[in-house]
Amino acid sequence: MQVDVADSAAKMFGSGYNCAQSVATALAEKAGLEPERMLALSAPFGGGVARTRNVCGAVSGMLMILGAAHPDLNKAEIYALSREAMERFASEFGSVICAELLAGIESDSSPVPSERTKEYYAVRPCEKFIRFAVKLAESMCKTI
């Protein structure tokens, strides 16, 4: 039985990994990358890049995979593809900015991650962002 990559990414998030790690690592092998290396490379991008609440980690992870899956594209082409992905994400959720996506939910920009509790997961919409980013990356990548 084939495991759904979006389910794998959601499970990673639910076990404590950040949004970028969850998206990028779940898709790493399909993009020809080592999951352990991708886990480390994507670590700084959680919480909207180092918890600054800027670009959503799920979006960052998705963009990493787009770049890895399209090594033949020049800068203009990969930028255009990346912008399309970001626009599609923003069309679905209203923004690609973590702080805007978490509007109305208690969150801070401290470098210290929030404790992952049942209550944390109950109010966080991040799993739906992760699932969407994985599916979008899969649909936009030639190699996966």
- The rough form would be described as globular
SS field, number of helical segments = 8
Q: What is the helix content?
A: 55-70%
How far apart the termini lie comes to 18 Å
Structural class, please? mainly alpha
Oligomer: single chain
Sketch the topology as an H/E string, one letter per element: HHHHHHHH
Secondary-structure blueprint of this entry?
Blueprint: H1 5-14, H2 19-28, H3 35-42, H4 57-69, H5 75-93, H6 98-101, H7 118-123, H8 126-140
Helix pairs in contact: 1-2, 1-8, 2-3, 2-4, 2-8, 4-5, 4-8, 5-8
What does this molecule look like?
There is one protein chain. By secondary structure, this protein is mainly α. The protein has one domain (about 5-140). About 60% of the residues lie in helices and about 0% in strands. The chain has eight helices and no strands. It has helices spanning about 5-15, 20-30, 35-40, 55-70, 75-95, 100, 120-125, 125-140. Helix 1 runs antiparallel to helix 2 (about 20-30) and helix 2 packs antiparallel against helix 3. The radius of gyration is 14 Å and the shape is globular.
Label this structure with key terms.
144 residues, mainly alpha, 59% helix, globular
In short:
With about 140 residues, the chain is an all-alpha fold.
